[in-house]
Amino acid sequence: MSTTPTRRPEGAEPSLTPAESMTHGRASLANRAFARLSTASGVTILALLAAVTVFLVLEAMPAVTTSPAELAERISWFPEAGGILGYVGPLVFGTLLAAVLALLIGTPLAIGIALFISHYAPRRLAQGLGYLVDLLAAIPSVVYGLWGSLVLAPRIVPVQDFLAQYLGWIPLFDGPAAHPARTVFTVGVVLAVMILPIITAVCREVFLQTPRLHEEAALALGATRLEVIRTAVLPFARSGIISAAMLGLGRALGETMAVLMILSPGFAYSFALLQAGQHQTIAANIANQFPEANTYGVSTLIATGLVLFVITLAVNMLARWIVSRRAEFSGAN
Questions:
Q1: Based on the structure, what is the number of domains in the chain?
Q2: Does the structure show a pLDDT above 70 at 15?
Q3: I need a surface site. Which of 143, 222, 253, 304 has the fewest CB within 10 A?
């Protein structure tokens, strides 16, 4: 007499042994705990961002709502004309000018270093050079400030004189060049060195993620090493390069001590990179004026900090928009 096996209804889960049931329960509990922890972490970030925003807005309101004449009367370093916008405007201009200059100097150099480490250097040399570049990120900003003011500023004077003499017809290099070079040009060079490890590290990892088949296909078609990089590596890494540059720009926008120790401050809308006493950044101005600021002065400085916060947020949003627009054209897809 034959027996037919009992069919399990469709969709029904297989029966588990007690040991398997206990293991499944532990895994399910771990998954739920990890999901809740991840959700709590994301909510914490949003809550901190909201708290910072509320603090900046509330503390900046006295400066925003007070008349310019009263602010000039209560704050010794506040300009008599222009009001809060007239005070913040030159600071925003100087901040953006120094950060963009650092980005223009540092990004090509960082891309070149990343390409050398990922595609040209021998493995041992590439590892050592990668460690040295990453070590630049561990140097405190005050050390960069000391190096920039005591070492770089005196030695960059001949470079500034050369630019003023032969390229002075360009408004950026309009002379006479300042001696010593406590200018936004020197600040841009120092900031470029400071953002170098961030951009280099991100670009290096992106370049190493280029599909090997893409490079081998280009080599099989007779492409040179330079053509492989131009046709296979750089298109694939385009969105990563943009992300790295925006990270470096965010670092340059908020840098304080190095700028404070190097730059001779001024409040002017000037593109003259080689002249001292023309520019000042928001972060350096806050650090410079905060120790002697009264209640209205602190509120005014926090208002400038709110503007810097908005600029940084706008830069990050712009970077994400550019990356999302460029992603479909990159080799990553």
A1: 1
A2: no
A3: 222
